[in-house]
Structure formats: C-alpha cells, structure tokens
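Quick check before the chapter quiz. The format below is the same one you will see on the exam, so make sure you can read both the input and the output lines.
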Amino acid sequence: MGINAQTAAQILSKSVIVCVVLLALLSVAVVEVVELESRLSTDASTISQLKNDASHPTLTIWTKSLTLNSAGWLVEGVPDSFDFSVSFNSTVPVTLYFLSFAQFVQFVNSHGSISSVSGQYQYYPATMSLKDAMFTLAEACAGYVSVFQFAQGGTIFPNVIVTYNPSLSVTGVCASNS
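Here is the expected output.
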C-alpha cells in the first residue's frame, strides 16, 4: 500500500502549514522572552535601588518656619551617622555654622561672637537663601550642632534633611579626640 502523489502533496502541504504555524509561535515566544528578560533586568535594577534606599534612608527633620523677634541664633543637634543637608529661605540674612560642642560653648560664652571660637569649623556666610549645604563630619561622631545666626529679627523657612550614611572610621572632632 503506497501513498499516491496527491496524498503525499496534501500531507506535505499540511506539514508546511504546521511548520509555518510553529515558526510563528516560536517567533512570538522569542519576543515574549526578550520582553521578560528586559522586565527582569529593570526589576533587578529597581530592587537594587530599593535596597540602597533602605540602607541609606533620608528623613526630613525640620521644615516648620520659625521667627526670631531680634538678633540671635537657633541651634539644632547634628545626629551621628547621618549626612546633614540644610536648605532655607529667610526674610533676613542668616549665617549657618557647624560647631563642635566645645566650639558652641565658646560661641555661647562670647554671646554669639564667632571670632571667639577657636579651631576649624564649617560655615556658610549670611544669606537669605541656601540650597543643599552639606555637613558630613558627623557620619561617625555625635559631636556637633548647627547654629543659624540672625543679625536681626526675621523668619526662616527651613528644609533640613538627613541621610543615614555611617562611616567605617571615626570622623570629625571624635577622630581628633581618639
């Protein structure tokens, strides 16, 4: 019992159709695999960024405006193991100092005269607008305060944020005291 030519042609024709359908399905599958690999790569990148964000969270610690009726200063502690970023707008010029505790005592004892403070300190000159002033010496040292000094009464509109970023070694005045 053999297959005649017409039957063979029909079988071959159906086989070609099956092959074309299989190639089309394979093509669709390849496209889906490429899209899935792309999404997987994007998701892996997102996960990596989320892990980094979780290990270095950023927190807002001061955004409420404050008014001083006359010249003076506002003081805020700088937390250990954090980068400290200060931005503000104000109605009068404000000078920003980052002082060690010992320097702050000198500052207070001299009634706010920075010329009485010994040693090095970080500061930003009097301005009515400051953007992203960064202080990093407290990354492994709980030994600093920030001082916002007003030459006259006025209002400050702050945005102070901190980012957890502990140093592997002692920093700032703590390094010089160890």
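If your answer matched, good. DSSP finds three helices and seven strands in the chain.
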